[in-house]
Amino acid sequence: MRESRNRDGSKALFINNGGERIQRSGVSRLVEKVATQVGLHDPNSDRMENHFSPHCCRHWFTTHLRRAGMPREFIQELRGDVRKEAIDIYDHIDRKELRESYLAHIPQLGI
To answer: Does some domain include residue 73?
Structure first.
């Protein structure tokens, strides 16, 4: 199906029905439509936590791939990042994981 739409040989991972690289506005509409259908997005709410945007999706995607151990170069390629450091803003330290890691590694210090 992709081959029939990709007449110009686009290298883009995601293409639209016309075979062109999907644009930012198309991604936003699609993500918000599906998020609304599953109850993650309320376009009528003034509360930030009731909205699910492509940014939220990208954040979730990156965070979970990093926690699952995917190499950062692979995530960088999937995200289309030019700057290596772009992934770093998605690294968040879970306090429970930090505590468990600390307790597991502190004996190795010989203290």
So the answer is: yes
Whether residue 91 lies inside any domain: the answer is yes
Q: State the residue for tokens 């993650």.
A: 40
Encode pLDDT of 12-23 as tens digits: 778 887 888 888
Residue 78 lies in a domain: yes
Backbone φ and ψ for 28, nearest 5 degrees, come out as -60, -50
Question: How many domains, in total, are found in the chain?
Answer: 1
How many angstroms separate the Cα of 57 from the Cα of each of 44, 53, 98, 101? 19, 6, 24, 27
Q: Which domain holds residue 89?
A: 27-109
Q: Which of 7-16, 45-54, 62-71 has the lowest mean pLDDT?
A: 7-16
